[in-house]
Amino acid sequence: MVQTQTRPLGLGLIGCGGFGEYCMETYARLPGIRPAAAHDRTRPVAERLAGRFGIPVEDEALSLIHRPDVDIVHIATPPSTHVELAFKAIAAGKHVLCEKPLAINLADADALLAAARSREVILPVNFVLRYSPVTEAVDRIIRSGILGRPLHAVFENFAQDEILGPRHWFWNAKISGGIFIEHAVHFFDLYAGWFGPGHVAAAHAVTREDSMAEDRVMCITHYNNGAVVYQYHGFDQAERMDRQNHHLLFELGDLYVYGWVPQSLAVTGLVDEEGLARFQTLLPGADVQVLETFRPQDQNFHSRWKERHATQRVRLTWGPGISKDALYRQCISQLMADQIAYLADRSHVRRVAESNGREALALAVQATGREKA
After folding, report:
1. Residue span of the structural domain in which 145 resides
2. What pLDDT does 370 receive?
3. Which of 55, 133, 242, 257 is the most exposed place for a label (fewest CB within 10 A)?
4. Structurally, how many domains does the chain consist of?
5. Are residues 113 and 157 in the same domain?
6. Partner residues linked to 246 by β-bridges
7. Do 142 and 98 sit in the same domain of this protein?
8. Are strands 243-250 and 150-160 parallel, antiparallel or unpaired?
9. Same-domain pairing of 161 and 91
């Protein structure tokens, strides 16, 4: 029988590097979480984190998992370790929050999900992008139909590699799974949230000169709603030049999203007075510019074999108005709070559930297979 969670969850962290510490710092502020224990293969790293939060260090991951005060295990280790650690935690009846990807192949992912269902524990992937207010705003715009159907999107990820030296595990596909699996799963999941199911039609990878490291990958995904998305991920920039942009093309306009964790957006489109009013409702407080006003004889037109009507071309810019760090912490907090709410009431519908990790991985595996074909 499913047990509901009524007390704070004791959280055990496996992997105490920079990101694991960042997450623990964020979780510690939540009323439903209590830091409980830490483990890292490099003990001094775990000791430094544990000292900040007043929690014990365990020399073995299994010892942390079996602690009675640990209810949920956050796995923040390299991808190739996720399956073994998650299986051990599930076998012990512990809930798991796994960093992306869930696994580096679908067979392991499916076995993990079956084990989690059997033990009635949760196993979400930490897909924080779904919790950005900008992500939610894009979803509202798509569903509103103000700009018509989405037709095409381009995501360009010009990522830094300053912390990824030539011996870093990131470049070893046996450990990371490669860029599509280790990193692009975030964006396969993001676009699935916006556009629904899809399949990878083509992919390609480029190897850095004088090395075996694939540092640039790209793919085309067709979605069942008719949209086609091109993704580019390149890990070859200076940290100060790290940047990401989305461009979504609709029948009647363009939507631009800025930031790895979506931080702001700009939308330009053809609307009438009602459409503009609906936009302002969807994006409260947005800055509005009227770029062009059409004469009455120019307000009716055709595109994609349909009759259209617009009185003006407008541009709206919008964002939550908080710093990148505050936004990122907010997303991390909301994902964990979402899981806690589900454990307290299993009728609660989570924004990120176990299926998201599997579905994003399936597309990443498709892309990896196609770029190597």
Report:
1. 130-313
2. 86
3. 242
4. 2
5. no
6. 155, 257
7. no
8. antiparallel
9. no
The answer for residues whose C-beta is within 8 angstroms of residue 84's C-beta and 6 or more apart is: none
> Do 162 and 105 reside in the same domain of the chain?
no
Phi, psi of 303 (to 5 degrees): -155, 145
Instruction: Write the pLDDT tens digit of every residue in 73-127.
Output: 999 999 999 999 999 999 999 999 999 999 999 999 999 999 999 999 999 999 9
Q: How far is residue 372's CA from residue 361's CA, in Å, rounded to a whole number?
A: 16
Rounded to 5°, angle at Cα 280 from 276 and 285? 145
pLDDT digits (tens, 9 = 90+) for 129-138: 999 999 999 9
Residues with Cβ within 8 Å of residue 264, at least 6 apart in sequence: 134, 257, 258, 317, 318, 319
Task: Decide if 318 is inside a domain.
Answer: no
Q: What is the pLDDT of residue 7?
A: 82
Question: What does the pLDDT read at residue 193?
Answer: 98
CA dihedral 342, 347, 348, 353 (to 10 degrees): 70
Q: What gap in Å lies between CA 8 and CA 340, rounded to an integer?
A: 9
**Residue 77 forms part of a structural domain:** yes
60: left (phi over 0), alpha (psi -120 to 50) or beta: beta
The residues of the chain scoring below 70 in pLDDT are: 1-6, 373
Q: Between the CA of residue 191 and those of 55, 60, 206, 227, what are the distances in Å?
A: 38, 38, 23, 10
Q: Do 108 and 167 lie in a common domain?
A: no
State phi, psi for 153 to the nearest 5 degrees. -145, 150
Task: Report the C-alpha gap between 64 and 68 in whole angstroms.
Answer: 9
Q: What is the pLDDT of residue 5?
A: 53
Based on the fold, state whether residues 119 and 150 are members of the same structural domain: no
